[in-house]
Every structure is written in C-alpha cells, then in structure tokens.
Design brief:
Order of helices and strands: HEEEEEEEEEEEEHH
Strand order of the largest sheet: 1-2-3-4-5-6-7-8-9-10
CATH architecture of the largest domain: Beta Barrel
CATH class of the largest domain: Mainly Beta
Number of domains: 2
Largest sheet: 10 strands, antiparallel, barrel
Structural class: alpha+beta
Number of strands: 12
Shape: globular
Helix content: 25-40%
Length: about 250
C-alpha cells in the first residue's frame, strides 16, 4: 500500500493547480482570439471606408453658410499583440471631429465610437449597423444632452457623416452639421471587388510587400503594420478564413 506523504501531497497539489491554471489561461486565450476575430469580421463591413476622403461640412443642408472643407482618412488599427482591433477615423482641418476609433463588442453585438472633437471634448457612442447606416448614440452629458453620429455608406465614392444632438427628454434629434465625403483619388477597398485582396481584412489591396517569395497586399498602412508584426500568424488566419469560407460555400 502506497502512503502519500505531506511532501508528496504538496507536490501533487502544486502540479494539479498548475494544470488548472494552464487550462484556464488556454481557454481565455482562445476566447480572446475568437472575440477579436468576430470584431474584425464585423468591422470588415466598413472596408469601403478605408483610405482618404475629401469632405465638405455643412451646418445647414444645401447651404454654404459656415461650411468648411476637410480631409479624412480611415485606417485599420490593429494592436501589435493583437489584443484589440479597430478602425481609426482621422480628420484634418475639420470644425467638429478630430479623431475617433471605431470598435466592435462581440458580447453586446454593437459598435462603439470613441471620439475626440476639436474643442477637446471626448465622447463615446454606441449603436448598430442597419441598411447601410451606422447609427451611434452617446449617453447623456453634463448638460443633459444626448449626441448622435450617423455614418451612411452611399456608394463606392460617397459617404455621409451626420452629427446631431437633442435634450434627453426630446424625441427628435437636431442637426449640428453633416460632412459629405468624396473618395480621394483611388477606388474603394471593397471586399470581393476585382483585383488583389488585403491579406488582413479582405479589403481592396492598394499596396503590397513580398514575404518568403510571395506577394501580399494591404488596404491601408494599419494592415501593413499588422502583417509586418506577425506575418506567419496573419497568413495562417487568412488561410483558415479561406478554408472556412470554402466549406460554407459547399
């Protein structure tokens, strides 16, 4: 009969605890990876925004009164450690928005926009995409106002971003201004369009690099940087997506 000494029991408990912790860490890593992939898939619906735009802002519809011109760029923002993924919306010479980060919460199944304005106000919006419109509302601010941003994907060369606000007790929003954007020069990064696809997001490939003798394409600098950080990991993910898509098609 084998007797388990206190020392042996201690070793067994440490080993068992280590196995439990390892399993928990592995499960968390898998969960985090799945959440990031779901977020990237949801955000890929905005591949058509990636790139540069020329915009005209109008406080009043069809009026040049107090109107302004600005430029904007949408670019993928993927952390080096792949802990998060988003799309950065950067504006130059604008009168409202300065910068914003669009992300997706796979648990809540909604988008978030963390925005910083030219007056240094910072605000978080949340909402959903429906019928080509991303409608995002903020919580009530200190003045009792609720704010809204509506991004309308019109076609491959036109996008509208509408800013609105209202008192919390009001039903209808009041227009603050709308920016009408026209694609700056190049075609959109449209998934499934003719030509090479971005290895990271599936958008329209507009730049490329060579790795291990093969050429890979990117829709923006954010995707290029993500590939350079972990080329083998990105390639493996792309192959897995392609296999899943093929299996689904069958």
């Amino acid at each position: 009969m084998t007797r388990l000494t206190w020392t042996g029991m201690g070793v067994w408990l440490v080993a068992a605890t280590g196995l439990v912790c390892f399993a928990a860490d592995e499960a968390k890593t898998t969960s985090d990876s799945n959440n990031r992939q779901q977020a990237q898939e949801a955000l890929s619906r905005f591949n058509s925004l990636i790139g540069g735009w020329r915009g005209v802002g109008q406080p009043k519809r069809n009026s040049s009164s107090d109107a302004w011109s600005e430029t904007a760029e949408w670019v993928w923002d993927i952390k080096k450690d792949k802990s998060s993924v988003g799309i950065r919306y950067q504006v130059k010479n604008g009168k409202l928005l300065e910068t914003a980060l669009l992300t997706y919460d796979s648990a809540a199944k909604q988008y978030s926009l963390d925005a910083k304005f030219t007056d240094k106000t910072e605000r978080r919006y949340t909402g959903k995409l429906a019928d080509g419109k991303l409608t995002l509302d903020s919580g009530k601010d200190d003045d009792g106002n609720v704010h809204q941003v509506v991004v309308t994907l019109l076609n491959d060369k036109r996008t509208l971003v509408l800013f609105q606000s209202k008192k919390a007790e009001q039903k209808l929003f009041n227009r603050v201004a709308e920016v009408g954007y026209t694609r700056d020069g190049t075609r959109l990064a449209v998934e499934g369009a003719d030509g090479p696809e971005c290895i990271v997001t599936g958008g329209k490939g507009t730049s490329s690099t060579t790795y291990k003798g093969k050429t890979y394409y990117f829709c923006c600098s954010g995707c290029r940087d993500a590939f350079n950080d972990d080329p083998d990991g990105i390639i493996a993910e792309a192959l897995a997506k392609a296999a899943k898509k093929k299996a689904g098609g069958k």
